Amino acid sequence: IKFGKDIETRFFCIEALNSYGGDDYAAIAELELLGEDGKPVSRQHWKIVYASSEELDDANNVATNVFDLQESTFWHTNYSKSNLKHPHQLVIDLGEDKIITGFSYLPRAEANKPGMIKDFKVYIKMSPFKLK
To answer: Which of 43, 56, 87, 115 has the highest Cβ tally under 10 A?
Structure first.
């Protein structure tokens, strides 16, 4: 996804609004932010500030998996808590100010598995988000 302009940011939030399968899950294998040159920016200093949900009971699908450079691992919202419905948010502190021009994400690789994000919103700020 290209933004059409350069944006200076420190904090990035992706909010999954729904999924292709109509399920209540969200999953991301890898997330990249694109720099001024259109190439991925360094993820060396990234930290998860907030994840609305993570699967820790039946698998190790923690939010940090979105930037671990392993396509086989992924962030997934909790499998068993039925009260966790869309939207799902993931907030990342980039660890330093960056100029970004867009982003890309790799969905979970297995076919016919839940959580493939259909519609989403992206929020970008220089200061931390106020989390509820």
So the answer is: 115
Instruction: Show the CA angle centred on residue 91, arms to residues 87 and 95, nearest 5°.
Output: 170
Report yes or no: 116 and 20 within 8 Å, Cβ to Cβ: yes
Banded model confidence at residue 80, pLDDT cuts 50, 70, 90: confident
CA distance 113 to 4: 32
How far separated are the first and last CA of the chain, in Å rounded? 28
pTM: 0.93
Separation in Å, CA 9 to CA 2, 78, 102, 104, 128: 15, 29, 11, 16, 10
